[in-house]
Amino acid sequence: xxxxxxxxxxxxxxxxxxxxxxxxxxxxxxxxxxxxxxxxxxxxxxxxxxxxxxxxxxxxxxxxxxxxxxxxxxxxxxxxxxxxxxxxxxxxxxxxxxxxxxxxxxxxxxxxxxxxxxxxxxxxxxxxxxxxxxxxxxxxxxxxxxxxxxxxxxxxxxxxxxxxxxxxxxxxxxxxxxxxxxxxxxxxxxxxxxxxxxxxxxxxxxxxxxxxxxxxxxxxxxxxxxxxxxxxxxxxxxxxxxxxxxxxxxxxxxxxxxxxxxxxxxxxxxxxxxxxxxxxxxxxxxxxxxxxxxxxxxxxxxxxxxxxxxxxxxxxxxxxxxxxxxxxxxxxxxxxxxxxxxxxxxxxxxxxxxxxxxxxxxxxxxxxxxxxxxxxxxxxxxxxxxxxxxxxxxxxxxxxxxxxxxxxxxxxxxxxxxxxxxxxxxxxxxxxxxxxxxxxxxxxxxxxxxxx
Length: 452
Fold this sequence. Notes:
It contains 21 helices and no strands. The protein is mainly α. It has one domain (3-239, 250-447): Up-down Bundle (Growth Hormone, Chain: A). The radius of gyration is 21 Å and the shape is globular. The protein starts with a helix and ends in a 5-residue tail after the last helix. Mean pLDDT is 79; it is low at 160-186 and 202-215.
């Protein structure tokens, strides 16, 4: 077995078990904050920010790892063990302060290691890099669907909510809805969407016979820790490759020099910054948007998890291979414009729509964009960076990402409460349009550089 095959297989299985953290950091922790701990608006805002703070931490961590030439498996093992401790703390010390501290380390194994993994992915042959990476991406997506489905029913059976909510409630302060469940049912599309959700519900009910799903959030955490232990073991056996081509210590002067001289790289970073703000300022609070009565939907936690995790991840699973193939075949800027356009349509439907059908279509589009975005985010640097500077470029890219992931959510929940979901959607759409227009003048420059 050659080193590429070994890396693909181990990374794929590692990602599958690691994906148990995705439903927890994207939905479950916020549901606990809302329904169990009755957190304040400020605390919910901090949770949304801290869950994404790993990108900021990833930059100095990657610089230190590159400087010390520490092999990646050891770093992953330590990060995973710290995350396990954070998970346990949120069970045994159930208060908002512990949740906020735990959020940082719990999310880090998922979102804080990208600059380090970029070194591994850069070893793949150029012409098949996207397709090889797709295998790991598919494993992560499949796992997130499976565990979101499992956790969805654990929380439903445990009746985590303090008050019952009907999934078809349409009474809200912000919006007056144009159709209820009975009228939505007359639409063929709505019947299909609700039918799929009902099938998932019935399949999940079969878990009752096992007797496993009874303890709510603590059971979710115990399962996640067990799966994270398996992921840690697999991480330990990854090839022990050292960062390649680094002859001197990376410093911030070098970073500034790259940003000054590489106009194409800098322009893409700024365009991505605008797109990131458009997407990320409300992303952590979609759970609030769908589950709190203030916004008019008042959906149950089971439906929230279905809409925010199961549905888009299923679409992402289907689209990962096609998007990876496209990434290997076309100019990256073209792919980036396509993805930005799809995200713009998602914003319109999700935050400006008033029906379950609009939410479903919006999340389907989000799943398509996520498939392309995941491949593009992790691999585009490998297309344009010199082989000896892949880690450096990725650290810069991650630093910009970390900045927007930490700063943008500070305004998201305030925007939803103060401006309304519709206005937030319009603001996001404007930012996305500007991000696309920034890239258009650079298509000629990118033609020879961002294509294999």
